[in-house]
Amino acid sequence: MTHYFLAEPPASPAKTGVLLINLGTPAAPTAAAVKPYLREFLSDQRVVELPRWLWQTVLRGIILPFRSGKSAHGYQKIWQSEGSPLYVYTERSALALEQHLRKAMADAPLVAFAMTYGAPSVADTIARLKQQGVSRLLVLPLYPQYAASAGGAALDKVWQVLLQQRNQMSVRSISRYYDHPGYIQALAGKIEQHWQQHGRGDKLMLSFHGIPQAQHNAGDPYPQECRQTAVLLAQQLKLAESDYIVAFQSQFGKAKWIGPSTQDLLVSLPKNGVKKLDVVCPGFAADCLETLEEIALQGREDFYAAGGTQYQYIPCLNDDSAWIEALAALVQTHLHGWG
Ligand SMILES: C=CC1=C(C)c2cc3[nH]c(cc4nc(cc5[nH]c(cc1n2)c(C)c5CCC(=O)O)C(CCC(=O)O)=C4C)c(C)c3C=C
Ligand SMILES: [Fe+2]
Ligand SMILES: [Fe+2]
Which residues form a coiled coil (predicted)? Predict the structure, then answer.
């Protein structure tokens, strides 16, 4: 195999950079913009682990023509004046983190954000940071719980860039933060604040994005990390086991996914006496299609249709100051003693 290593300018004074990575999102809420985004995302073999020839035929022939329009319709319901919520909150979090670190540290790092799929790409963002003199890079995918299909896929993009570098940067990565006290406290604070303002339901649902059961069987630690987040959160909120329930949402395709399914529970809970439900999505750092459309809008409709009488969606941490403070502490811990 021939390698082509990037041409590099001479080294400038060493700087440190922090790179936040999120999933990516279409550039516009239209089928034309959703299609290339979904093609790139769903072509990643970390996400769909089927033989390439088989999956590409199904993806291009069946999934993309149908799913792009349906997804675009969902995005239209949640799109903000500044763009896709996932993009808007990720960008704001990076800006807020940089400002916070500047106040907290003498030699504060540059902070940038990138998307695993779509723009700004990990490759372009690392190239820009390198031009700005960054030779030490701390990478943090914005997924509290590690799944190969999310955090793993984000970090793959970083390693792919490193493989091409002539003068390789030093890299540290944070592959997960599901049990970080600052994350747990920020989440608990958000939920408590919501309860103080709006009252409390009969049960709190902690809804995490799902993954295929086969990926977990092959060794993906994701569901255990979600459950551990739930236990720590319950301890912080002093909840009994009967006060909350862990569920997994956004099932895609016909294969078995890890459960219990959020969708199924939204229908069965009212029939089992839970008429007032609070839902929070601790696995999502930023509100997005899967939280705002699938949970806050569609979930509410399904819960009421099944006999529920009160449904409260508690937003993600987004760029809340308590979370940015915790994120800054997490970053500072991992920068400690570096250069
Ligand atoms: C095989 C399919 C998928 C796996 C595995 C998967 C894992 C996974 N995803 C997230 C976070 C997000 N996913 C989002 C959207 C989304 N996810 C899938 C499929 C899989 N995800 C699809 C097809 C879509 C697109 C939207 C749709 O058509 O329904 C998003 C939101 C993006 C946005 O623009 O708002 C996030 C965030 C995690 C954390 C994860 C594994 C744990
Ligand atoms: Fe997803
Ligand atoms: Fe979805």
Answer: none
Distance (Å) from CA 106 to ligand 3 centroid: 43
User: What residues line ligand 1, using a CB cutoff of 6 Å?
Assistant: 23, 25, 47-48, 67, 71, 84, 86, 143, 147, 149-150, 209, 211, 222, 250, 252, 283-284, 288-290
Global pTM reads: 0.97
CATH node for 181-314: 3.40.50.1400
Q: What is the pLDDT of residues 201-216, one digit of tens each?
A: 999 999 999 999 999 9
Cα(259) to centroid of ligand 3, in Å?
A: 15
Q: Give the up-direction half-sphere exposure of residue 166: CA atoms within 13 A in the CB hemisphere.
A: 8
Which ligand has the nearest atom to the CA of 252? Answer: 1
Q: Which is the closest atom of ligand 1 to the Cα of 222?
A: 42
Surrounding residues of ion ligand 3, Cβ less than 5 A: 250, 290, 294
Closest CA to 250 of 278, 291, 216: 291
E runs forming strands in the chain: 15-22, 110-115, 134-141, 170-173, 203-209, 244-249, 276-280, 310-314
Average pLDDT, integer, range 216-228: 98
Domain limits, the chain: 15-177+322-335, 181-314
> pLDDT, tens digit, for every residue of 57-78?
999 999 999 999 999 999 999 9
User: What is the DSSP code (8-state) at residue 18?
Assistant: E
Per-residue model confidence as pLDDT tens digits over 262-279: 999 999 999 999 999 999
- The 10s digit of each residue's pLDDT in 226-258 is 999 999 999 999 999 999 999 999 999 999 999
Which helix (H) or strand (E) segment holds residue 56: the answer is helix 52-58
Averaged pLDDT for residues 319-330: 98
Q: Select from 300, 297, 308 the least CA-distant residue to 79.
A: 297
How far CA 20 is from CA of 23, 45, 86, 155, 302, in Å, comes to: 10, 22, 13, 11, 34
- Please indicate whether the domains covering 15-177+322-335 and 181-314 agree at the CATH topology level: yes
CATH top-level class of 15-177+322-335: alpha beta
The pLDDT of residue 2 is 57
